[in-house]
Every structure is written in structure tokens, then in C-alpha cells.
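Re-run with default settings, no changes from the original entry. Doing this only to confirm the output is reproducible before filing.
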Amino acid sequence: MTMRAIARSLAPVLARLRAADGRIMADQVAVTGIPAPTGAESDRARWMADRLTESGIRDVHIDVAGNVVGATGAQNGEAPVVLCAHMDTVFESREPIEVRREGIRFEAPGISDNARGLATLVALARELGGESVRTARPVLLAATTGEEGLGDLRGARYLFESAARGAHAAIALDGPGDERIVNTALGSRRYHVAFRGPGGHSWGAYGSPNAVQAAAALVVRLSALAERGRPRVAITPSRISGGETINAIPADAWLEVDIRSGDSGELGRLDRELRFAAVAAADGENAARRPGSAPMSVAVSLIGDRPAGEVPAREAVVAAAVAATQQIGREPVLTLASTDANIPISLGIPAISIGGGGAGGDTHTRSEWFENRDGTRGVARALLTVAALARR
């Protein structure tokens, strides 16, 4: 069946989605107001579980990773199509969040990433949970934990090891937009690098290895690595700290580093170069230390590892999303990003990530915003994609 034919068969459903624009936006505002720092998504999870249950989704439950999971459609042993959206935000505050509105613009931390994806998941659940959208394959719906920061895709990892193991295809709803189709998983590795030396008085022990100097030397070395012009690579020293007082040689210093690439081989090479650079930074301090002073040590810990990968454009999940994007009158753009879809892609499950419509910006800042411009087009695109994949 062509995408045009699927759209014709779902015309009443698509009309209901357009009419539900205000309700979808109200859900987006409501879920934004519930704080959900990575690792503390339980309040938002309960809200999502209630919405999915009210929509007629069966077997709704919260799993051991904190994901909200439910299913709909045929129970015939067929591998499911997975539709997921992450619940957590990058913001650590656990205070209720106020959404500010001016015209069509809504502003609040997390209003786009990923309140829009969650509101879209709820809107689709209301249609999939009834009798209006029949699918040959079951559809597994999930609101996941630990997508942001050091969550390291925890919820998605567990989901695709358990309820979604061996899925037919997966679609992650992440943020706004109705043109982008993420079919390339941007891989990342994250490191905690700790330097430890003897410390000492800033005058009396001057010349002893300085942990802050070593950390700074590593940052300089990483900048040189980034300047080599390799394609599709980002090396970001993101956090740094050390020392206890202004008149002491720092005994301890640490930094965290984020490395990203769409190429697994590049990630492996950069892993080796970062480790070499960390040892070289410590060696530099040790080589220049005053006689009799204790040497410095360095420890490099991998604290996050998101796999890279790519789903070819010819795969059914990408082709369905391309056709659905064209069906709503948009021009599809294939791109790369780091999302929950990284996990199924790494397991050989065809997966993409798409937005839930509308427009947004200033992501991961407290001035994050969303504008509800033709927002239901993105919701319709997601439904058409799911319907095409769940036909069997």
C-alpha cells in the first residue's frame, strides 16, 4: 500500500489529530511542568503511565529501568514496531517548572526536548489504543529514562534487552520538527580523567607536580587533536575542577570529556589518543618536578558509551518516514544525532528518530522555546510512519 493510500485510509484519524491540536499542546505544557532530571523521572513516569492507560493501551507498567511501557494492536507473535520518547531533561532542579507563553511561543526548560516527543506519544496512544487504527503488527509504546547526559541511554538499553528485544523497527520521538529524519546514530564516548599528586604549600613545595596544570595541559592537547581536521568529530572538555585553596599546590584535579563521531572507528582511535594524551600530561608534570617530590598519577574512566551506526535510506523504516514526510508536504532531510535510536541501531534493529512537529530552539538552556507552527503535521507524520511499518 502506498503512503497516499495509507493516508486516505486514515483520513478520519488525521482529521481528529488536527482537531486535537489544543489538547496536544496542553499535554506538552503539563508534562513540561513536571521536573524530570536524569535519574529522577518517576513523577513524570507516573503521569505518562496514567495517560497511556486512559488511552486504552494495554499492560501499561513501569519496568525496572523506570520506563513506562505498554502495547497495542495485534497479539499474534509478530515482532513489534516500537514507538518511544525519553522523559528526562538535562536540568537538575526538582522544583515545578513554570511555562511562559507569548503568542504562539512557549518557553520553559525542556518544553521542546522532550516534552514535545512525550505529548506526541500520548496523542498517538489515544488513536492506537482505540479501534480506529488497526495494525497487523503490535505497537510497543515506551517513555524512557536516562537519555540525557550521564544517563547513557539507560532506559533504551533495558527496553531493547527486554520488552522490545528483536523488534521489527523502532521510532524515537525526540524534540520538535517535521522534516528531519535521524537515520545515523552519532556515537559518543565520555570520560572522567583524574590527576593526583602530592600537593603541598604553594611556596614551600613549589615544583611538586601540579594536578591543575596537568589537567590544563590535557585540555591543550585535546584542542590539538580536534584541529587535525578529521571529518565528523567533536572533542569537548566539558567540566573541570581541582584544588582546595589558593595558597596550595593542587593535589587533585579532574575533567570530563565528550567525544563524538558518526564513525565507530574514529571513536576507537580517539579513545586511544585521549588516553595517551592524559598520560603525557601527567608525565610532563613528573618530568619537571623538583627532586624528592612524589610523582603524579592519572586515571582515565569511561563513564558513557553511545554506539554509532547507520540505517541505510533503502531500509523500510527510513523509506516510510521519507514518504510520510512528503505526504504532509515537507521535504525530508536525513541527518545524524544521538538519541534513543542509537541502541536499536547498534543491535541491528532498523531505527530512526523524528520530531513531533512545530519548531523549537535554545535547546538545553533555561530559555528553551517551542512554537506550535503546524504542530500536528509532525504528529501526523509519526502516525503515518507507524501505520506503514505495522502493516506487516
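Residues 187-306 form a domain with the Alpha-Beta Plaits fold (CATH 3.30.70.360). The mean pLDDT is 95.
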